[in-house]
Amino acid sequence: MSLLQKPDPRRLELISGAFYLGLISLSIQVSYARLAVGFAGGNEVYLSLFFFFWLFFTSTGAFFIKKVNPSRLFLILAFLTPVSALVFFLSPRIAGIIPGQLIPPFIYTITIIITLLPICLINGGLFSSIASNIKGSGRSGRTYWGEAFGALIGGVITTIYYVSGGRDYSFLIFIAFVCLIAFIRTKASIKAIVFIACIMLLVFGAGDPLENLLLKIRFRPYIFLKSVSGRLVRYDSIKTKRITSLYSGGIKIADFPDEITGQELFYWPYLVKPDMSNIALVRAESHMVDRFIPSHIKRLYIYPERSWRELIKPEYLPSDDNCQVNDPVVFFRETRDRFDAIILNLGPLLSLYDYRLETRRFFGFCKDKLTGDGVLSVSVSAYDGLWCDDLKQRLVSIYNILKDNFINVYFIPGQKITFICGDNIDIALTSEELINRYNTLQIDSPYFNPALIRSRTNPFKTNQVQAQLNQPVRITGPLSIGYGLSYYFSQFGFKYNLKRIINLPVLTIITVIILFLILMSSGFHGKKFLQLLNIFYFGVTSFILEIIVLFYTQLLGGYLYIALGIILGLFMIGMALGAFLGTHYNKHPVLPKNKYNGSLVACVLFVLLSGLLLLTPGREWILLMIVTMAGFAGGLGFTSSSKPFDTKPGLPYAVDLGGAMIGTLAGLAILISALPFRSVFYIICLLGVVLFATNRWARK
After folding, report:
1. Tens-place pLDDT, residues 24-64
2. 391: Cα within 13 Å, side-chain hemisphere
3. Which site in 142, 188, 327, 568 is 20 to 30 Å from 269, CA atoms measured?
4. How far is CA 510 from the centre of its chain?
5. Which domains does the chain have, with CATH numbers?
């Protein structure tokens, strides 16, 4: 009769350390990503740069910090987690950026480097230190497995917290206490008591007063009123004189009141269809237009979420009967109501969240909800005169989509170009016709008057606009909004040229440099180099798939920064399952025995997943399946290929993160139109086939 071996307490402690590392690392990553993007106004370019620096500094820490007591590193992380986040709130003030001014890229980059460098070095060092202390083979794989499982739990916690409207600084304080739990060596019951106390601090928002204080400092000399968590990370309301302004991160998205803008938003479609009786308004909220709408017209204001209502004075808000708190895309997809007019107000194109409201999909939903002679009015930020190429591409793209959906598409030039669309418009949009109808309706406005109508519709302006709208533009991929971001970055005094920095030649050079470093790290040993090359490919491909899923989530649902934790968590649980299978592959009695088989399976999976993304998935559940399987393939491939490096567990981890860095830049290049969407995945498929064949050959 054999006796079961007693569990090694040291080994169990290290396994729990890997679990804590995953939970803490992903939670910090989600909260810091939200703060970083909120600091910059919800821009996915900045999100991509955040991931790049996170991966770069983490891989550096994994490579250089080795065999340090993990408890000490957890203690340092407990201190750094809330302290480093202060930089996001204070750096604009230190840099002299006034509230409402856009954050320049170099200020953002400096802020990210200062904030992430210490956090990520400790994070990477924790992985190497925990793995170095594990006995036996497969150190990196087993640490990877524990980290991935902890990350799943962290993803679930962050998603539940942010869906409930939680705020960032309270969550960072909670994570700091979790770091302390990982640090202390005591009974599990005491750790459980400390954890329950952490949950209580989180529920009661222990960090909210400090976050409000930091926002007061950030928005001086204006008066900070209130802040709430939302789809675009955070909404802040600020008061200056008689105006209340609503900010999303660093960008102003509305003033209360704002009647000048509201008059043109409503009166143009009203002149075209004066018999309207039921209208819906998106981003044309009641503080803009309500007092201009005749009382007999039923109006429905569509707010993105209820948190807006918490920040705005009641006199600027419609009644609950006239308000729909729902995502506009979801509302027009699911509602059974029909409207005589839908009025859509589009601002600058800064992110995929904005882009959602100018896609063929959304305009199709709007048309389906119009009555037979209903009109869609789309107002877009522009300017009189000749447009720059980037603005022209945006306006021409919108114009062409509208022409594909409607028989009649007219436009009104101005600081906002207004497209009036319908299938049965019975009026020519000339100065004479519009002024006659203006007089018939007895509109009384000192701003919107016959002189303004003549100015907006004079033949010179309309011919100039028509000539520009008729010009061909380059069709970009489904996730490419480079023309909108170009116009955004041009406001910083330089022409938007991220394409000169992030493009195919530059990515090729960086990849060659990394491959050379990998070759040197392998000691020019052929089979070891192949294993590191496998890990590099898996890192590149898995993160490209992950970041593309993140972009698609924002495009389809608009809730990326709420669901970020669960998406990253699913990616990590896929990694956990893949890492577990890769670690125990050769121990399975049924599977064919070969140390390269896991890499072969991973190559096949990445080729299949890339092909699936080429089909442009339109359902969120498909995206969640893709990101989970991408994690599974990455975890399986990593653990299958990292076994020869048990004496240097930080090396394969650093190579994996180095590949993920290239994946981040590739995703960013797709976003800014520097790389064609389809070409990237064709290359991934081709490289996957080549690596599959190479690994098959290496078995012989």
Report:
1. 999 999 999 998 888 877 778 888 889 889 988 988 888 78
2. 21
3. 327
4. 25
5. 9-209+497-698 (1.20.1250.20), 254-478 (3.40.50.150)
